[in-house]
Structure formats: C-alpha cells, structure tokens
Amino acid sequence: MxxxxxxxxxxxxxxxxxxxxxxxxxxxxxxEITSFVGRAKLISETKSLLRTARLITLFGPGxxxxxxxxxxxxxxxxxxxxxxxxxxxxxxxxxxxxxxxxAAGCADQLGIGDNADGPSEARLIEFFRQRRALLMLDNCxxxxxxxxxxxxxxxxxxxxxxxxxxxxxxxxxxxLGVSGEHIVKIHPLLPTEALYLLLDRARAAGTAISEPEYxxxxxxxxxxxxxxLAIELAAGQLDVMTLRxxxxxxxxxxxxxxxxxxxxxHRTMHATIKWSYDLLGEREQRMLTLVSIFEGGFDxxxxxxxxxxxxxxxxxxxxxxxxxxxxxxxxxxxxxxxTRYRMLELVRxxxxxxxxxxxxxxxxxxxxxxxxxxxASRARKDWFSARQTDLMRQLRAxxxxxxxxxxxxxxxxxxxxxxxxxxxxxxxxxxxxxxxxLNDSRRMLTRxxxxxxxxxxxxxxxxxxxxxxMAQIQGSEAAGAAQAEAEDVARQLGCSDSFGPxxxxxxxxxxxxxxxxxxxxxxxxxMARAEEAFREAGEEGLEFMAALYGAMSxxxxxxxxxxxxxxxxxxxxxxxxxxxxCISWAKWTCGLAELLHGDAKAAAAxxxxxxxxxxxxxxKWGPPWSLWQIALIALRLGDYxxxxxxxxxxxxxxxxxxxxxxxxxxxxxxxxxIESTARQRFGNEFEIQIAVGESxxxxxxxxxxxxxxxxxxxxxxxxxSQHAExxxxxxxxxxxLVAKALTNPAIGQALGISSRTVEKHVENILLKWGLTxxxxxxxxxxxxxxxxxx
Length: 790
What we know:
Blueprint lengths: L7 E2 L30 H10 L5 E5 L6 H9 L2 H5 L5 E5 L10 H8 L10 H9 L5 E5 L12 H12 L4 E6 L8 E5 L5 H14 L9 H10 L4 H8 L7 H5 L2 H4 L7 H18 L3 H10 L8 H9 L8 H10 L4 E5 L2 E5 L2 H14 L2 H22 L5 H10 L1 H12 L5 H13 L2 H4 L3 H13 L7 H16 L4 H16 L6 H14 L3 H4 L1 H15 L3 H18 L2 H18 L2 H18 L2 H17 L5 H15 L3 H18 L7 H18 L2 H12 L3 H9 L10 H7 L3 H11 L4 H8 L3 H15 L4 H15 L2
Parallel strand pairs: 2-5, 2-6, 3-4, 4-5
Antiparallel strand pairs: 1-7, 7-8
Helix pairs in contact: 4-5, 5-6, 7-8, 7-9, 9-12, 13-15, 13-16, 14-17, 17-18, 17-19, 17-20, 19-20, 20-22, 20-23, 22-23, 23-24, 23-25, 24-25, 25-27, 25-28, 27-28, 28-29, 28-30, 29-30, 30-31, 30-32, 31-32, 32-33, 33-35, 33-36, 37-41, 38-40, 38-41, 39-40
Pfam family, one: HTH_77
Protein name: Non-specific serine/threonine protein kinase
Keywords: Kinase, Serine/threonine-protein kinase, Transferase
C-alpha cells in the first residue's frame, strides 16, 4: 500500500511540519527527498511501545523533528505488518482551530467522503470499528486547548473506546492529557547526528564543509541546540555566508541562554527564524510576510495577486519565491501538474506575527480574500470546459484559503455579500461534488446565510437553492426545509417561475422525492425551464447540469425513445465542451437508459467507460454510483455471483464516500426490482456473495477491477424479458389484465384484492415502465411481454 502524497523540494527539515499533503492513505512507501539522520533508538523504542500502548504522543518543541520521525515510522515494514488494515497518516496543520472541523478533516484525508448528514465522528468510528489499524495525527498542538480539552482530546476520547483495535500516534508540542496516553519525548539530535545533518544539508545547498571545519560546524550545531529545523535554516545561508560568518553572527551568539528545556528551545527556534529573516533583503522580507497569509499552501498566481496589491512588482515574484525556497523558508510541492508553495508552520507563524504588529494585516487579508473570490468566480464561468478537472482540483486544494477568505468577508457587514457569493460560486462549480466533500460546501453556504441581513436577496436565494440541491442528492431530509425557505424567499423577490437555480432545485426534489409518478414527471419540464434560464444567464455549466438531471429524470419517467434521446443529447453536449467529469456522468446516464429501456450489454459498456474515466480523473463522487449501476447490470444479465459481489463492494464504496444512492427513491426502487429477481433465482447464496464483495472492498482496487471486467459473451436476456423482470409477479398479473381492458374493480375481483391495491399496482407499473396511461401499459405488455411468455 502506498501513499498518494506529493513530492517536495527542498525537503522539510528533521523538524517542523511534514512535507506531504493530500489524502491520507495506508502505509507510506514514499521516497524521502533528503537523508534521515539519527533517531534509530527512538524508532526502536516507539515500535516496541506500539506493541502494548494504544495512544502515543511524540512530544517535543517545534523544529525538533517530530513530524519527520512520524513519517519515518509510517514506512517501517515491520510496523505495517503489525497493522494489517493500514497505517494512516493525517496532517492537521491546515485544520483551523476556529471551527470544529477536526473529525471532518480527518475523514476527508482518510478518503471517507463528507457527503452525508450526521456527525463526522460517527463516520470515523464506522471506518475504524473493525480495523486493526494505526492512525497517525501530525501537528496536533493548535487543536488542544488545555490538558484533556480541545478537539484532539475530545475526538480520541470518543474514537479509541469505539474502535478497540485502533492504535493512535500523535505529534504535539503539548500533551494531550487523554487517558492511556504514553509520552515519547523527542530530544534534539546528538552532536554527531547534528553534524552529519549539517554536512548533508550543506552539500545539498552546493557547499562542502571540509574536515578541518568540523569543530566549527559542531560549534554551530551546539549553538542551534541540535534542532534539525534550525540546522536546515542555517545550511540555507551557506550559499551567501561562510561557516565562520554564520557562527560569529551576533544574532546566533544570543542563542546560548539558559532556561527550562521547552522555553530554551522555543527561544532558540524563534531566534533562528528571526536570524534567517533578518538576513533577507527588504523585498524578500516583505514577500515572506505576505505569503504567510495563505493557509494550506498557494500557487504562483495567488502569490502574484496578493503581492501586486502590496508593493511588489509582479515580475519579481518568481525570483523572490525561489530565494525563500533556497533559504529553506519555503517549500515547493507538485500536485496534479501544478507547483504549490508551502511554509513550515513555525516560519508561517513568525511571518503572521510580523504582519500583525506591522499594521499590514487588514490590507493583506483583503487582497487574499479578493483573489480567492475572483478565482471562484472564474471557475464558475469556466468549469464546463476542457480545463474542468484541473479547475476542480485547484478549487479543492484551495479549500483552506477559501474558508479563510470567507471568514474575512463575513467579519464586516459591508462585505457579507462577498462571503455569500464566494460560497455560491464554489458550489455552482460542482468542485466539491467532484471532490466528495459536499458538506464543506454546505457549511460555507450556511455560514454565509447566518450573516445575511433580514432583507431577502438573490444571493441568499441562490445559496438556499444550492443547499437544497446538495441535500437532495445526499438523500438528506434537510432538502425539504431548504427548498421551502427558498420558495418563500423567491416569492418575496418575485422570481418563483424564472430563477434558474430555484427551478433546478425544485425539479431535482420533485424527481428524487415525489412518490406520485404523475407529479414526479413534472420534473422533466422544470429541468427544461431551468436549462433555458441558465442559458439566458450565460451559465454554461449549470445549463449542462440541468440538462443532465433532466435526462436522468426522463430515463426514469418516460419511455425508451425520450430516454435515449435525452441521454444521447447530454453526452453530445459534454463531448463538445471536452469536459471530462461531465462526459463521465453523461456516459453513466446513457448506461442507465440502456439498463431501463434497452440492451444490458450496452448499458455495461457505457457505465464501464464512465467508471474508468471517473477513476482516471480522481472523481470521489462518481465511482460508487458507477459501481452500483454495474452491479445491477450484472444481475440483469444473470451474472448473479458477480452482481452480488459488486453490490457488496458498492455498499462499502458508498459508506467510505458517504454516498447515499438508495437515499433517493427512484434508485431505491430500481435496485429493489432487479435485486428481487436475483434473490429469487440465486437463493441464500446471494447474501453470501454480497459479504464476499464487502470483504474484497478492503482493497477497492479489487472491486473496481471486477467491475471493469468485460461481461461474458453469453446471449443477453431479450428486452421483453427485461421488461417483465422490472415488475413483481403481482404487477405482471395486473398488467396482463389491464391489457385485457379490465377495470380496476374487475381486476381486483379476479385477483382477490381491493381496487385501491390495484390502483397502487397500476401506478407502480407506470413508474417502472416510464408510461403515462393504461393504454400504454396494454401496448407494452402485448408487444414486449406476452410474446416472450408464449
């Protein structure tokens, strides 16, 4: 098992925060960019402690190497063997202390989608309840208010008892104070280890320290208390200063002070950073303080935007960033073909302190917030294009900065509208649907609405419509309340029949939640009106989404001709835009149309193509849906063992991503129809094979490989028998008597049931076959079902 982390250059120090970002994943085999110095005894002691302890804190001052030690531990093969269900590393530095987002952030990095109602803690418990696993939480201190309080202690106090086979290792500058916590103190490097680190980092910087200089180098290591991060920073100056000049520098001489262990090393680390800062030129210093405003990293475009508003020429930004990288004050990382910059957390805090005391903070935060407001606005306009997946990944990576920007806008009455607009633009881009973190989008929308003034506005209405739509596709009961509030605001604003987002959310709710098939069919016309409204507003992305959802509802609620035409149309629209995420969903819809109205083998081909594309673009929302649909296709084709296993795998995939396919009525009914026949024919073995599929899903790759296998060349079930299988035995009997022109009372008398029960059976037949009248039932039965029954 490997980690999908990003490479970093230059490497992080032995201390400071880790050099990876992105989703956590089981045990890490990532190659280290720089050598790992010392710590053999600590690693051995910690591994030994892991045999008996369930909670270990790697404890020490900033810059001492806690994060690097944690990462090295996570790669130990012997350690991984002791935790067969995975070693999982979660980075907490970017999780803000201002909100209770720890559990959601952990779930996100673990690949557990944040897409359902209910506390994130419950999802973590569900994930780890049956797992013999090791969870590593890096950089906890800002989420600990005091001993035994704060987000980290609260989470572990709940999680550890609920997941009895789980072991947790944390890194922190303060103790957690949780019952059962074992402290492993991380001390500075020994003199020989510190010297080796300095020699290694000097070589990496292009400067060789000769053997006669070793005593001087040892002196420097002593002055720096053997703190790995401090040694990194000092080595970063060797391209412009000699070793003697560094050692003789007055700022470093002041590091040799007495005091308690933690206070002494804190002063040493702070003074080292200040010394490195003081050696920078004026423009370089300004650059460092400006980019410290970013949370979770930043790219060149963001840095240029903030700097341009604060006195740095845009042409100078790349060279200034390179200087900070060379001095080990800034790290680079590559993600999805984009270069991002990140500051070590200790350096970032230093920069923020300077920003706060200089009086520059308001202007910098305003520039930061407006950059991300503009980014969200551009993404909303451009996401339905060949750049779609790149834009979605970029928006996902900037989530910490979007949160910070919204907090800034919502802090003043005059900019509350910007805070709401920011959340609406991000939601309209579908980036957080793609990323499988719908609740993050809903949280931002809700946060904005909480600050909205009493007077209704179009921004408020757009936010409510997005909340309703998102809650509906999550299968959440919150959709009804949000839609009702949106309808009320729309009436006040006089746009109930013309506002695209309202028509879209109203149509989605009608299709997915309305039990009456006749009323549900009105969703098709609503989606068409929404599509037209979006087209007139120049909203190409939302215009496509309305067409897509209109096609899906048409597949369920209309006949074959309309279903095939609508699904083919959305595929044509997506291909014309070269929008890969949209293409995958259009292919999925074509598969759905074939499953309900046509050829199951064609349905398999479409859906397998959709799944392959979703996996290639790292879509977090789509694969569980494609897996579920392929499972139903396998059952429809009579491949009951494979279909049952895929259903089991789909269950696990939905739990991991918190995707509630069966929380939406049409999809629940479809599975019940197809699964009912499979259970009758496959018997008790069906549930056994579902359990086999769930066990396979410990490695989702195995399940997806099974889903992508070509279906055997056995002859398909004829379309006629597929239509018959969609109905229960009793519904087929009712359809036969409808075809004989019997009234409901006559059918009830013939079958020994009430007229009301007959009426419900007729409604179900209309819904399942996508018809509108009894005459159409008679025609379908006589044309498709009766000939197959002889």
